[in-house]
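Thread title: Can someone regenerate the structure for this chain?

I was given the following input by a collaborator and told the matching structure tokens would be attached. They weren't. Posting the sequence so someone can regenerate them.
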Amino acid sequence: MTLVLEELFFLPPNAVARVGGASDPVESYEWVVDTDAHGGDRVVVRPAVTLRVRPDGSIESYVPTSITFKDGAGEIRPVAPFFELWATVRDDASDERREEPMNLALMGELGLTTAHFAFDVTTANRKAERRTGSATCAFIARAYVAGDDCTAHQLLAISPHTHGQVPLVPPDHPIPLGTFQVLKPRPDPVLLGVDPSVLRVRFTPPRGEVYGPPEANMAPASPVVPGLAEAPITEYGRIHEIVPPQNRFLDPDTPWSRYIMLNGVWEDSQPQDGYDGANVGDSRSWSVVDDTSDGELVACVSWRHRRFEARARFFTGPPDYSPDLRPVYSIADDLAERELPLPTVDKRDLADALEEVVNLFQRAFETSTTLNLDAARTRAIQENLDRLGGAKPPVTKPKFGPESFTAADTPYVDVSPELVPWNRPANTFGPIAAETQLPYTDIMAALHGPLAQRALLIDFLRRRGAHVRDVVRPPFGNTRDWSAAPPPVQPALRDPRLAESKLHDMRMPPYMRDANFFALSIGRRQYELLLGVIDALAGAHDDATTTTELPS
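Best answer:
Regenerated them for you:
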């Protein structure tokens, strides 16, 4: 048998790293449903098979006894992803193709060693460049590493520049964006399902530091609600240290130090309008950057006079706000939104679709436990009023003004008036009562908790399907489906050309914002799946033969 190399690729093809000041990355874990007697069918984290890097660069696998997100000194433990190199090979005799990890055995069959491989890793932070339009305000790190070099390489970033240009990050003071390491394959036996002879690499993110010029020392926080602007004023919020002294080495004479959003020279780059210095004084940038970045990993090898490449992406972000809980909308959901067709649900695939919807409601409950709904409602109503420019909210349902999520907001609100009986429309920005200072936040568990349990959710969707349709906010429609002119009334899927499509109301997810500060919705695919399950359950309820086949 002769193997032919046809393709090289990484698994996973992309991964998210998270910054942290601890020296040891967090161990692996997975989300599972706690089915114990007192677990309440809640999702919990369970330790999973973890890879530990030995001093010689090889790995060993183990299962931790517990998961800790901070070390003994209180530093957050970073998330440092591994990437495995895989190959598509073909049996020259049978013409059979298969995918295999690039381990020592496969390398031997192909006549390769780790020395034949090379890795090119590039990572960059281009946030300031995106605003100013100047590449001198970006900072980039790049490293070339041989496949048999198993030392950890620092990724030190500087700003690109040429003659006459001033770099934001000077060459003599680079910003560390993490480390990259090729891991040494060893012919050890497979342990816990992990083959230590596979060629792997690892990206370890940086600490999570901020950097600025010498002037970025102390300054006031903005007193303005995030997302809003206000003319220069003389009273500000508390004074904070902007950048620690050891990180004040950026050049102050760059476009980033002169940036002011919406001043006629620069626009306010969306979907994010926040930067250090915004909404304070004249909104001039303090020229502060952080050490998050986006990166590309390339592996290459030459085999039989052909060059093969594998590519993967990694993204360095902040620490997870609630690492033991899942978001209602994830990267996986976004990829499915882009790549998969809209779902249709019938009796044949109802069981699988139902599992996705149960998972969605479980994540909705988990997200709700992290949200101060009273604060979110207050901010959302104020944003509605500001967006309307003093005009009265449209006479529509649900309510966009102070009546939102009160007894006046019927039929959308049918439970919370009983749970929060003292809340009345006169209490514009949240009720005040002796019983609780956060009434909406306090009732979230009572509203969402039962729906996170499979049997109760199925029963609720069967009985109250029409109500669920009303209280789940529709997503925006695709531009290809829009009419030439804005419709006179709100269509089934929201149209951003209509003012009410952008306003906040009590529909799920309540008072949360998307990247444009509009009312957040679940994804189009999630929405269609939910409606499809509601319709299929209603049909199954009318069909006695199918009802007995449904999970209960």
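The first strand starts at residue 3 and ends at 11.
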